[in-house]
Amino acid sequence: MRALKLRRYSKRTIKSYVDWMYDLARYYMRATSELSRDELQAYLYHLAYERNLSAWLANHL
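^ Phage integrase N-terminal SAM-like domain-containing protein, sequence as received from the core. Prediction below:
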């Protein structure tokens, strides 16, 4: 979170990123630091095609 603040991200953007990380951890039921690249890509696919999240947003998470 500190890196985002140093880059001058808005509080709302930081909150959104934190919320997505929390959702990712819940989706896999473990810490995000334990996830592989393939699991992250599968999660982005889940967001884009199963939850109908825009492709732009999925690419920026």
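The longest helix spans residues 11-28.
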